[in-house]
Amino acid sequence: MLPNYIDHLTKAQNASDQLQSIKDHEKDREEYYQDTAPYYQALKDVYLSFQTAIPLINKKIEENNDKSRRDNKRFIINAGLTLLGIVAMVLLAVLAS
User: Fold this and answer.
1) How far apart are CA 52 and CA 1, in angstroms?
2) If 15 and its partner were Cys, which of 39, 61, 65, 66 is the partner (CB 3.0–4.6 Å)?
3) CA torsion, points 69, 73, 75, 76, in degrees to nearest 10?
4) Per-residue pLDDT averaged across 40-62, rounded?
5) What is the CA 89 to chain-centroid distance, rounded?
6) Based on the number of CB atoms within 10 Å of its own CB, is 15 exposed (0-12), middle (13-18) or buried (19 or more)?
7) In 3-state terms, what secondary structure has residue 27?
8) In this structure, are residues 1 and 62 in contact, taking their beta carbons and an 8 Å threshold?
9) Are 8 and 50 in contact (CB under 8 A)?
C-alpha cells in the first residue's frame, strides 16, 4: 500500500532525532525556528503521506474482509453439503439393509 513505508518511518525518526538534538542545545527563538523548520516540514510530509494512504488502506482492508467472508461462506456451504451427503449415504445404507 505504501511502497516507501520504511523510508517514511526512517525519515520521520531522523527528523525527530534532529529536532531533539536541536532542542537540547539552547538557542534563541529565531535561530531555533530556522534550524527546526526543515525537520518539521519532513515530519509534515510523512504525516500527509500517511493521511493520504488511510482511505487506500481502508479500502484494501474492506476488500480483504469481503474476500474472507466469501471464503467462510463457501467453506460453510461445502461443509454442509458434505454432511448432507454423508447423512444421505448413511440413510441409503440403512434402508438398503
Assistant:
1) 11
2) 39
3) 140
4) 93
5) 47
6) buried
7) coil
8) no
9) yes
Residue type, 64: N
Place of cell 523548520: 37
> Sorting pLDDT into bands at 50, 70 and 90, what band is 1?
low
| Structure confidence by residue, pLDDT tens digits, 3-40 | 788 999 999 999 999 999 888 777 788 888 899 999 99
Helix (H, G, I), strand (E, B) or coil at 25: coil
pTM of the prediction?
A: 0.62
Q: Which three cell numbers stand for residue 21?
A: 538534538
CA distances to 9, 21, 94 from 15, rounded to whole Å, are 10, 10, 76
Residue 38's alpha-carbon distances to 19, 21, 32, 45, 49, in angstroms, are 10, 14, 11, 10, 16
